[in-house]
DNA sequence: GTTGAAATTAGTACGAA
DNA sequence: TTCGTACTAATTTCAAC
């Protein structure tokens, strides 16, 4: 394998990008299915498992990467083995119009594995991985509390992670059970891309996603 | 590459396994760092980037896989491109001593990407990816509400995902800033493995992790 | 979109330091 | 343990169909 992937981090990239570059058909989805289970499979073996020729597999593989449908390839690491046995969720209430600052401060915190903007009682949810409970405490009281943009926090520990799938795909639903519409779609589009996708900062929360 | 990775899903595997099989040194962490950014890099290129010989890289690579420090390799997929533009969090209150049923029902739901048992007000947090908001509604009212083990739910939409890191590593903290203890550790252990790791079903919540 | 053959690269198995 | 090298097997590329 020639070191294909440059793999620059997508953090802070354009999240609300809805534009479609590639129409995903059943074969594309099949490729994604295999790749999410085994990101290191060779394209040759991938072609065999999907049931297409190698040249075709190479073409589609590259297209999926170029299009961004495949963001990157990564290793799932056992965080307890890596010395980060504690996982916690921190729900943050953010002062309006200080989102930019909040985001900037977040970027400086390497223990943050995930951060999402949510509806509901709080504004954001942060997932962190640290070595011990003391680190959670110092993270919340010393670092987060010192950010002016942070109005309030609520911390919860994760006791167990029951399901952690690489990425859900539409095909997971199975062929026999349509997502919602039993049999509408006249000229059936391969995949309802970006349907109602309001992902991207919204509701006066602009300034977080971009820039 | 001989299709190395069997990559069987770890879902429902033993989560609370604390036993250490491998002591991770700085080189191991360096390998993990590279691999989490580029899971498809060849071992030869990996060796070069880490600064060790190819033979050594192969040995350590295999050791990390065998030990479980590397769970699997996966492709990060852009869910909006895959037709699943809606992400939601569902907080679930579970009836005590019905965890087994709850877990069994969860396993039947392919739209669940992540499920964690938490402390605090609710008992579990589920993250789902679906095509439209209607699917969230039907998921909550038709499927979750029909599980006897589910006492109550609270749903929140994810408007934007600001940070999504592959996996946090201890080395992310940087060399200059120790995690918590400035300079204690007499015979410094390479990594405080499993320290205070209460990951694994606890607090009368047994039966979820291991069945 | 597919197949086959050539060139490159990856993976393995040594011995030596 | 780690390294360096040689050997074998697989993968990728490129061509023609």
Automatic annotation (TrEMBL), chains A, B:
Coiled coil: none annotated. Residues 24-85 form the HTH asnC-type domain. Gene3D superfamilies: 3.30.70.920, Winged helix-like DNA-binding domain superfamily/Winged helix DNA-binding domain. Keywords: DNA-binding, Transcription, Transcription regulation. This is HTH asnC-type domain-containing protein. InterPro entries: ArsR-like_HTH, AsnC-type_HTH_dom, Dimeric_a/b-barrel, Tscrpt_reg_AsnC-like, Tscrpt_reg_AsnC/Lrp_C, WH-like_DNA-bd_sf, WH_DNA-bd_sf. One of its GO terms (cellular component) is cytosol. Residues 169-195 are annotated as: Disordered. The keyword Transcription applies. The keyword Coiled coil does not apply. CDD domains: HTH_ARSR. One of its GO terms (molecular function) is sequence-specific DNA binding. One of its GO terms (biological process) is response to amino acid. It holds the Pfam family HTH_24. It comes from Planotetraspora kaengkrachanensis.
């Amino acid at each position: 394998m020639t070191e294909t992937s440059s793999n620059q981090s997508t953090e802070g990239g354009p999240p609300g990008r809805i534009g479609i570059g590639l129409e995903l058909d059943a074969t594309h989805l099949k490729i994604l299915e295999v790749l999410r289970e085994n990101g290191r499979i060779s394209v040759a073996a991938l072609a065999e498992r999907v049931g297409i020729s190698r040249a075709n597999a190479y073409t589609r593989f590259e297209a999926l990467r170029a299009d961004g449908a495949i963001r990157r390839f990564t290793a799932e690491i056992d965080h307890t083995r890596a010395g980060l046995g504690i996982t916690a969720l921190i729900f943050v209430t953010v002062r309006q119009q200080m989102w930019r600052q909040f985001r900037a401060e977040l970027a400086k915190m390497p223990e943050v594995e995930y951060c999402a903007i949510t509806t509901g009682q709080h504004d954001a949810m942060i997932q962190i991985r640290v070595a011990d409970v003391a680190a959670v405490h110092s993270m919340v009281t010393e670092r987060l509390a010192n950010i002016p943009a942070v109005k309030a926090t609520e911390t919860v520990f994760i006791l167990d992670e029951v399901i952690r799938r690489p990425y859900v795909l539409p095909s997971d639903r199975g062929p026999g059970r349509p997502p919602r519409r039993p049999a509408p779609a006249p000229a059936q589009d391969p995949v309802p891309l970006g349907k109602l996708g309001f992902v991207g900062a919204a509701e006066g929360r602009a300034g977080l996603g971009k820039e």
